[in-house]
């Protein structure tokens, strides 16, 4: 009896050891997989050749212009001073909005005065979009705002020359980690979430396991719902000049996803175009339909910020995105000595504005 019991406890302790060894091996394999996956996602080994354009720094922009968009009449809007997750930020001041007239002989950004109920001390503007109401020419400026790390959308009306009148704040459980928006009406928009879930640990797991679970949300005053899913991490979003297609930058998948707008504002997935970089915001040339992308060539250098080995900047263009063979070309590249952490490139009649997360902004000549 005693012997039997001793044998039984021997084999159960052997079993426990085997289990423990299996658990350690599984954990080591998971850690190894996570390390390789993150290295791949962040393009941690990538170095860029430098390709410059004829550019100069924009005046008054010292703390980033995460997003920039330009109206057909040459009026550019910029969101500046973003504080976001653990990314660097060199200003303790709240964020600001600027406007810039590209038709002026010496375009200079002017700070927009914000009127209304909005709390300016916690204003933290991120992605932006502008909608012009063609019935009365009113201009509505939509801004993703992260006051105290929250996620909400502000709608303003632009009043010439330098005023934004705050109209409303939109919050919704589906809009839990909004990165960028594209307005499709004076109160309606599509928004990308950069996390799959409000819980960041769960989102991290989906990234490591390569399970794309981020979505695009459609908002109007009468309805809020998921319009598209299957995205690893949604970032920039924009619309084709004919308003038929929506483009989303799936930043950690290194691709741009193309969707077609269907009845009831549902989005149908068409295809993805690989870009080989971590692309942030998307601007569309209203004349050619080309996509311009502000990208992070190596996001390891962005998260482990070191001024001696700074994060670079990369601007890509996609031509003929709806054809069988879209052409992706590098239009600008810098190792961070001139410009760190580009997020957006907005073209206008042979000119290009380039914005960044926390650094300066460039005004470039494409001709
Ligand atoms: Ca935008
Ligand atoms: Ca994808
Ligand atoms: Ca962005």
UniProtKB/TrEMBL annotation:
What lineage does the source organism belong to? Eukaryota, Metazoa, Chordata, Craniata, Vertebrata
Q: Which residues bind Ca(2+)?
A: 66-67, 128, 179-180, 235, 280-281
Family per similarity comment: Belongs to the paraoxonase family.
Q: What class of enzyme is it?
A: hydrolase
Q: What is this protein called?
A: Paraoxonase
Among InterPro entries, the record links this protein to:
6-blade_b-propeller_TolB-like, Arylesterase, Serum_paraoxonase/arylesterase
Keywords (A to Z) from UniProt = Calcium, Disulfide bond, Glycoprotein, Hydrolase, Membrane, Metal-binding, Signal, Transmembrane, Transmembrane helix
User: Which residues does UniProt mark as catalytic?
Assistant: 126
Looking at the UniProt entry, the stretches that span the membrane are 18-36
Q: How is the cofactor bound?
A: Binds 2 calcium ions per subunit.
Q: Which gene encodes it?
A: PON1
What highest taxon heads this organism's lineage?
A: Eukaryota
Sorted alphabetically, which Gene3D superfamilies does this protein's record hold?
TolB, C-terminal domain
Q: Which GO terms describe its molecular function?
A: arylesterase activity; metal ion binding
**Disulfide linkage:** 55-364
- List cofactor names only: Ca(2+)
């Amino acid at each position: 009896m005693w012997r039997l019991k001793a044998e039984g406890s021997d084999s159960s302790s052997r079993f426990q050891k085997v289990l423990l060894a299996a658990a350690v091996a599984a954990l080591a394999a998971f850690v190894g997989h996570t390390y390789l996956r993150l290295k791949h996602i962040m393009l941690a080994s990538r170095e860029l050749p430098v390709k410059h354009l004829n550019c100069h720094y924009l005046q008054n922009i010292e703390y980033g212009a995460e997003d920039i968009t330009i109206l057909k009449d040459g009026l550019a809007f910029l969101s500046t001073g973003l504080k976001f997750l653990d990314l660097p930020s060199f200003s303790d001041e709240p964020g600001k909005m600027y406007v810039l007239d590209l038709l002026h002989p010496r375009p200079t950004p002017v700070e927009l005065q914000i009127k209304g109920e909005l709390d300016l001390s916690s204003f933290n503007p991120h992605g932006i979009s502008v909608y012009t109401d063609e019935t009365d020419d009113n201009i509505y400026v939509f801004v993703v705002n992260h006051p105290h790390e929250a996620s909400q959308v502000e709608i303003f009306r632009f009043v010439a020359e330098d005023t934004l009148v705050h109209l409303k704040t939109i919050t919704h459980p589906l809009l839990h980690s909004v990165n960028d928006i594209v307005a499709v009406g004076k109160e309606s928009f599509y928004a990308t979430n950069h996390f799959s879930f409000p819980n960041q640990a769960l989102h991290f797991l989906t990234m490591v396991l390569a399970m794309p679970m981020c979505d695009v949300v459609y908002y109007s005053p009468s309805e809020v719902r998921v319009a598209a899913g299957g995205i690893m991490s949604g970032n920039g979003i924009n619309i084709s000049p004919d308003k038929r297609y929506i483009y989303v930058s799936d930043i950690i998948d290194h691709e741009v996803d193309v969707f077609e707008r269907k009845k009831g504002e549902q989005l149908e997935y068409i295809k993805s175009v690989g870009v080989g970089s971590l692309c942030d915001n998307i601007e569309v040339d209203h004349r050619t339909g080309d996509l311009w992308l502000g990208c992070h060539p190596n996001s390891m250098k962005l998260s482990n910020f070191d001024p001696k080995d700074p994060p670079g900047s990369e601007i890509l263009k996609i031509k003929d995105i709806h054809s069988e063979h879209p052409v992706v070309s590098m239009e600008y590249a810098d190792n961070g000595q001139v410009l760190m952490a580009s997020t957006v490139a907005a073209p206008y009649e042979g000119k290009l504005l380039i914005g960044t997360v926390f650094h300066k902004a460039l005004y470039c000549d494409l001709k």
